[in-house]
Amino acid sequence: MERPRGVGICREGLPRPWECGDKVKELIRSSVVVTGIRGAGIVLQSLILLFLARSLPVHELGIFALFYAGFGIVRILGPLGTDQVTMRQVAVAEGIPDGALHRILNTSFVLVAGVNAVIAAAAFGLVSLAFPWVFEATGLSVAELLLIIASAPAFALIGLMTYQLRGFGYNALAQFPDSVALQLFIGGGVAGLAYAGRLDLPSTLFVLVAAAWLVAAIYLVIRLRIGVDTGARPTWMSTRCLIGESREVLYALSITALSARLPLLLSAPLLGSAATAIFDVASRFGSVPSITTSAVAVAFSPRFAALAHSSDRAAMSRTLSFASLVAVSPAIAYFGVAAAAAPFLIDHVLPPAYAHIYLPMLVVCAALTVNAAFGVTSNFLFMAGESRVVRNFSIAQLAGIGILTPLFAWQFGTLGLAVAVLAGSVIRDVGMAVWASRRFGVTLPPFGLGRLSRPRIQETGGLVQDGP
Predict the structure, then answer these.
(1) Averaged pLDDT of the chain
(2) Integer Cα distance of 447 and 225 in angstroms
(3) Cβ-based neighbours of 15, under 8 Å, separated by 6 or more
(4) Taking the domains of the chain in order of start, what are their residue ranges?
(5) 446: cis peptide before it, omega within 30°?
(6) Helix, strand or coil for residue 463?
(7) Can you give the pTM of this predicted structure?
(8) Across 13-22, 108-117, 342-351, which has the greatest mean pLDDT?
(9) What are phi and psi of 445, to 5 degrees?
(10) How distant, in Å, are the alpha carbons of 151, 280, 444 from that of 87?
């Protein structure tokens, strides 16, 4: 039987079965493409990290890791929560914004760029006046540190633009500059410095920030090509509305970003910068499962936004569980491969200073596997407007990591840092999945694929809501 053309909606207002299949295929295709792009970026990032580990002293790599983590926080928090809010609004508008939404999008750009510029200036003043020892520890001059900190708006705009492009439906285009182009620019710069014999900590940091500005420029060009209504200028009212909607998202993201990086940030004062470098290398290779987790979040978030405002619990259960399985299957496979192959690679590729990263790497990998299985729930809750719940569970995660990290670090070194990461993942990701299953009446992912695909109809003609 030939599929009919057109919108494909039954008279009851329900999507036709084959179009649901097409939607699933599209989500899988998008997840695979984004995963491939992120995978390429991770490979490039790993090669750069290996090269730096063999080229820089271990304490300098530890300092570079702290800067890298700091810019990672800026990339997440710099958009002030407007990235999630505007992506959701564009997705709901099906990528065709009206005049009011154009104004909100323009407001988000001005707000993010301006606020991050002010924060960067304040951060530089604080470091210069209150922490002058930073210059001696890093080998940076005042002018060099100013140039590095001044790149904060670039990282924030990267975070903002990637989410907005996803809202417009350009998942692959949103991912490529951030995952691949950024690493290509960094790798090219590092290789050039090494060839010229001028590779050190300050020059490596300059390469990082220069690459960020180039990628931010690429995103701005893409955004202009999609279409920007320059007449829809930001107003005080649009700024207040955007800040009001983004506040809860920013709170939740702040706790999440700090929780994810707290063990690394604490590793320097607890164990020294050399331990920071060792834990950073272990974390980078242990975090490979995040490739598919992030790709699934990118591909499924618009679908989550649509389902969150429906009453089809069966579809919610199936979609959440399907997303969970797509994310966790590669994570489990990677854990097995890493457990078998990592000892050989550690012995033959990394310098002797990194000989003890095997167990911390596996524990971090286990934490990311837990996140892959249950963490998609956080994206669903963001799209459902339940960022407050994500914030609360993230606070619990942060408290757990903050208590456990010093205790485990003093007792077990870098392995203790990794155990704290695993405990935090269980607290946040499993807890959110259980809460969402009760709040929305859905089956705990990834166990909801068996929900009935055909809705039951009451005698009155209304839908019967499936229970949990």
Answers:
(1) 82
(2) 42
(3) 8, 9, 23
(4) 20-439
(5) yes
(6) strand
(7) 0.73
(8) 108-117
(9) -70, 145
(10) 24, 31, 26
